Structure formats: C-alpha cells, structure tokens
Amino acid sequence: MNQSSFILITGASGMVGGVLGRRFQADGFRKVLTPRRSELNLCDAVSTEPYFLKHRPEFAFLMAAKVGGIAANVADPVGSLSENLSIAANGLSACHRFGVQKSVLLGSSCIYPRLCPQPIQTYRHVLNVSF
Ligand SMILES: NC(=O)c1ccc[n+]([C@@H]2O[C@H](COP(=O)([O-])OP(=O)(O)OC[C@H]3O[C@@H](n4cnc5c(N)ncnc54)[C@H](OP(=O)(O)O)[C@@H]3O)[C@@H](O)[C@H]2O)c1
Asked: Is residue 105 within 6 Å of ligand 1 at its C-beta?
C-alpha cells in the first residue's frame, strides 16, 4: 500500500471511519474513497457490486455499521445483528469478487482483545506497510 493506492473507507462519516480518513489524509494518501450511505448502501447487495466495479479499490477499510450502544442493542438485538451481518457480508463479498488486495472489517459488537499488547497497533502494522 502506498500514497497513490486506491483506498475505500466505508463508514467514513462515522466516529471510527472519520478518524481513519483524517489519518490517511494527514499521511498523504491521495486516492481515498469515503462514500456516504446514500452512495454505497452496504445493506443492498445489488447496489454494492456496481460501486466496487466502478471504483475498483485496492484496499478496503469496512468501518460502516448500525451502531447504537448497549441499550439500543438490547432493545433491538435482531435488527442490529441482521443489518450488521448484511453490511459485513456484502462488503466482504464485494472485496473478494472485485480483487481488493487486503480488507479490514471492524467487529460490530464490543470485542476487546484482553491479552493484546497495548496500545493496539495501527493500520500500518496491521497491513505491514511503511512509508
Ligand atoms: N465507537 C466505538 O467506541 C467503537 C469501538 C469499537 C468498535 N466499534 C465499531 O466500529 C464500527 C463503527 O463505529 P462508529 O462508532 O464509527 O459508528 P458511527 O459513528 O455510528 O458511524 C457509522 C457509520 O456507518 C455508516 N453506515 C451505517 N449503515 C450503513 C450502510 N447500510 N451502508 C453504508 N454505510 C453505513 C454511517 O454512514 P452514514 O452517516 O452515511 O449513514 C456512518 O458513517 C462499528 O462496527 C462499531 O461497532 C466502535
């Protein structure tokens, strides 16, 4: 991955995706796609594939999710699960079908690696890149 790679960040208007997008921008990446849900709705497989076909990202950071916190998940557990499964399945499937070299998907529930060295390493280490 380098600064002219085509990078897709889904959920870039959200908290996590927004931080990642600003980090890429600060690091000089010039081809970062940050579609809103109105442009790429990952719940809709029919419209997801044309987006990937048109833009052909090389790396994908799948940060989009239905997020509501613990109370919202307790109130509507199946709705959150169902939507997030669709978002994950459609995103990963499109990455596979359209030749994305590496993809990162955030787990959409509270998952913390208890034994992971802290602080958790950045995307540079995850993707084994240096620049
Ligand atoms: N917040 C935390 O502390 C935390 C910690 C660990 C993990 N996570 C995980 O990180 C992920 C992102 O969390 P967040 O706090 O950044 O969420 P957030 O601020 O609520 O942002 C959610 C993002 O997902 C997008 N989105 C929702 N449904 C979509 C769909 N069907 N298609 C395309 N985009 C969609 C939204 O886009 P629009 O604005 O265009 O609707 C928005 O950009 C979640 O899986 C969350 O569980 C969060």
From this structure: no
pLDDT digits (tens, 9 = 90+) for 72-90: 888 998 999 999 999 999 9
| Domains identified in the chain and CATH numbers | 7-126 (3.40.50.720)
90 pocket-lining for ligand 1 (C-beta < 6 Å): no
Q: Which of 71, 129, 82, 75 is nearest to 108 (CA)?
A: 82
Cα 14 to ligand 1 centroid, rounded to whole Å:
5
- Structure-block tokens of residue 117: 């060295």
Residue 34 contacts by C-beta under 8 Å, 6 or more apart in sequence?
9, 12, 13, 17, 21
